[in-house]
Amino acid sequence: MLPSERDALNETDAPAPTSRRVPTLVVAYEDPAPREGHRDLAVEMPVNLIYGSVPYAVMMTTPSDLVDFAYGFSLTEGIVEAAEEIRSVRVEDGDGGLRLIVDLAPGRLREHLARKRAISGRTGCGVCGIDDLAALPKAEPRAHAAQLIEIASIQRALLGMGEAQVLNHTTRAVHAAAWADRQGNLLAVREDVGRHNGLDKLIGALMRAGTDASDGFVVITSRCSFEMVEKTATFGAAVLVAISAPTSLAIDRARLHDMTLCAIARSDTLTVFSGRDRLLLAADR
């Protein structure tokens, strides 16, 4: 490898911070005194890819190595076949995110603009079907009933998740989303290789059953990104519990929707990132 090639591989571009420190409240189930602290979260940011002044897709990414991302995305999407067909990539600030302006070679641009993008179902990545930052999904604000959830109920639901994940016992490769009543009993569980898909399946089941969104809370086994908060808010549930960590935008959206967001949820502790007033802790008794 030539020195110039090695330098190019090691170059990074980070137009925005890739992590953010937020205040937290760590609650131990058997300890009446919650602990205040801070935690660094991965930043999740919408990035709008634009070719020839035409928006193409909005992807949720960590805002680093974005030029590399533009090249790789363009190749895997079939927009280009070689690096030489990209003349330049420019990173710009956008409305609530970033824009990647990709300048294609004239012939390749004509082919791209003539081709209509067909989006297939995917197990991860960005916000499929959205081609502009202004169209980023945002649930309609809902007035949540002030239903208190005991911390012991969340613990009970978490302890039941392992046995409830039937497909994951076999594959160890799927995410789960569950609905628990206010006592922590798991009433519905759906699994899928895509964390968004699992939550959509759960919400669909609850809709078909006519479930009142104020009668319980959602538990997910994946990290909590902004889409998971938006989907939960769209259904109308006020409490979301995630086993993995949330992103910065997930917390922002949870606060926007006046939701309770608990994450890094284990059998002995969980971390409250927003909406502590809906939780009945040992210290409140």
Written overview of the protein:
With 285 residues, the protein is an alpha/beta fold. Helix content is 29%, strand content 30%. The chain is built from eight helices and 14 strands. The strands form three sheets. An eight-stranded mixed sheet has the order 2-1-13-12-11-10-8-9. Helix 7 (226-235) links the parallel strand 10 (216-220) and strand 11 (239-242). The model is unreliable at 1-9 and 118-123 (pLDDT under 50).
Number of strands: 14
Biggest β-sheet strands, sense, barrel = 8 strands, mixed
Please report which band the strand proportion falls in: under 5%, 5-15%, 15-25%, 25-35%, 35-45% or over 45%.
Answer: 25-35%
Q: Largest beta sheet: what is the strand line-up?
A: 2-1-13-12-11-10-8-9
SSE sequence, one letter per element: HEEEEHEEHEHHEEHEHEHEEE
What count of helical segments does DSSP give? 8
Oligomer category: single chain
Radius of gyration: 21 Å
Low-confidence stretches: 1-9, 118-123
State the helicity in percent bands.
25-40%
Average pLDDT reading: 86
What does the overall shape look like?
elongated
Q: Structural class, please? A: alpha/beta
Distance between the termini: 66 Å
